[in-house]
């Protein structure tokens, strides 16, 4: 789902502010005075509406991936995400962890219209026409419980069967076609195997460019294809790629120091890359809905392949691959820049040579003319 908040939260949703409601008509006020008060109220309303509009335009909030209807935009640079106990517990712990600078600020929960929400810092706040990329981390996006459930208590999902049919009907067995359903584990595993999740330890879930165009469903199994996507996402801007590279390296350092990371199996969590053309670029850890404490008997290393029962998520495998591919994008962008610079220099040299040539010719002509003049004297 993609939701442009700047449009949805337009002036029409604006309520009379306290400044306006202060202007209450008193009994017996004469008509002229009422008119003048109304005029003042209208201009206040217009002014405040414009202020509200422009402040909201600062955050053109979009939801690039995830569950439709899970988010609401809130006042004061916050977004509200549908409450999940698992996620709330993680966020609470992360606020006192070395990973805190990499996680949106968590402000507890709130009730809206009978539903509970988690209050999160809006990571797009202050960015102008943001460019966003959601990378889902890890070598698998399903919890081990999902696998167990698929053996012991399989529930067939028609929606997931249909999503598979739409992409590749041949991926389904005859039995699955007959049942017109697959388990959630089967679907998630298929998604992992048909993307770079299983091989690289991450996948690009979606990219939104500054004009609002969104690309999802990347068929990117090869590192070269991912590098290509990174170059297109950053328009090969070296300073943006370098900022991302440093942030990934800093995240790696923080993960090594993090008691939270040591003790949790991080499944289905994303890194949200955000930048705009005023050179603000950052990366944030989001979505802890499937991040759970690892059993006390298991010591996770996060950098070895998953095997049933070992609980490994492969988060660091993905982070290393992603960092290395951003590094490759930097090298390629630098090469392209040099080539472009070379071409520009060539063209400048060529122009200068041409100018010199023309000048020499015309000077030669002038000399001749002067000589002729001299001789005619
Ligand atoms: O992205 P597509 O291919 O559409 O598949 C989605 C994602 O895997 C979701 O994971 P995430 O939240 O990490 O994006 C998952 O939510 P869960 O978090 O519940 O596993 C959805 O399961 P359902 O919510 O059961 O439909 C599943 O349908
Ligand atoms: N704090 C935030 N600030 C800005 N955008 C966010 C924030 N959290 C999530 N998003 C947007 O919402 C999308 C889905 O978020 P996510 O937490 O993964 O939801 P879900 O649990 O439904 O999968 C992200 O890809 C991103 O575009």
UniProtKB/TrEMBL annotation:
Keyword list, A-Z: ATP-binding, Kinase, Nucleotide-binding, Transferase
GO annotation, biological process: inositol phosphate biosynthetic process; phosphatidylinositol phosphate biosynthetic process
TM regions (residue ranges): none
Lineage: superkingdom: Eukaryota
Region (Disordered) location: 336-377
Biased composition (Low complexity): 368-377
Catalytic activity, reaction form: 1D-myo-inositol 1,4,5-trisphosphate + ATP = 1D-myo-inositol 1,3,4,5-tetrakisphosphate + ADP + H(+)
Enzyme Commission numbers on file: 2.7.-.-
Family that this chain belongs to: Belongs to the inositol phosphokinase (IPK) family.
Protein name: Kinase
A Pfam family per the record: IPK
Any one Gene Ontology molecular-function term assigned to this protein's record: inositol-1,4,5-trisphosphate 3-kinase activity
InterPro entries found in the cross-reference section: IPK, IPK_sf
Statement: the UniProt record of this protein carries the keyword Nucleotide-binding: yes
GO cellular component: cytoplasm; nucleus
């Amino acid at each position: 789902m993609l939701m442009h908040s700047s449009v949805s939260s337009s002036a029409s949703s604006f309520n009379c502010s306290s400044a306006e409601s202060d202007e209450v008509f008193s009994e017996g006020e004469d008509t002229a005075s009422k008119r003048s008060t109304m005029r003042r109220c209208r201009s206040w309303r217009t002014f405040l509406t414009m202020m509200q509009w422009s402040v909201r335009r600062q955050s053109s909030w979009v939801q690039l991936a995830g569950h439709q209807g899970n988010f609401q935009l809130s006042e004061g640079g916050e977004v509200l995400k549908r409450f999940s106990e698992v996620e709330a517990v993680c966020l609470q712990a992360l606020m006192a962890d070395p990973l805190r600078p990499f996680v949106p600020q968590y402000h507890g929960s709130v009730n809206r219209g009978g539903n509970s929400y988690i209050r999160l810092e809006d990571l797009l706040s202050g960015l102008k026409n943001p460019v966003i990329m959601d990378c889902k981390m890890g070598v698998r996006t399903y919890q081990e419980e999902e696998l167990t459930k698929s053996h012991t208590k399989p529930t067939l999902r028609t929606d997931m069967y249909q999503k598979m049919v739409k992409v590749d009907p041949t991926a389904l067995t005859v039995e699955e076609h007959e049942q017109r359903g697959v388990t959630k584990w089967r679907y998630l595993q298929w998604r992992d195997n048909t993307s770079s999740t299983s091989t690289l330890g991450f996948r690009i879930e979606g990219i939104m460019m500054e004009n609002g165009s969104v690309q999802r469903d990347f068929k990117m199994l090869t590192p070269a294809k991912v590098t290509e996507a990174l170059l297109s996402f950053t328009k090969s801007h070296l300073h943006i790629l370098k900022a991302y590279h440093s942030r990934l390296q800093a995240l790696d350092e923080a993960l090594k120091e993090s008691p939270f990371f040591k003790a949790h199996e991080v499944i289905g969590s994303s890194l949200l890359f955000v930048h705009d053309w005023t050179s603000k670029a950052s990366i944030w850890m989001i979505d802890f809905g499937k991040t759970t404490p690892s059993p006390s008997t298991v010591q996770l290393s996060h950098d070895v392949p998953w095997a049933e029962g070992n609980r490994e998520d492969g988060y660091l495998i993905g982070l290393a691959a992603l960092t290395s591919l951003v590094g490759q994008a930097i090298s390629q962008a630098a090469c392209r820049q040099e080539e472009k610079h070379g071409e520009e220099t060539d063209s400048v040299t060529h122009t200068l040579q041409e100018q010199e040539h023309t000048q020499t010719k015309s000077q030669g002509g002038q000399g001749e003319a002067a000589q002729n003049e001299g001789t005619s004297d």
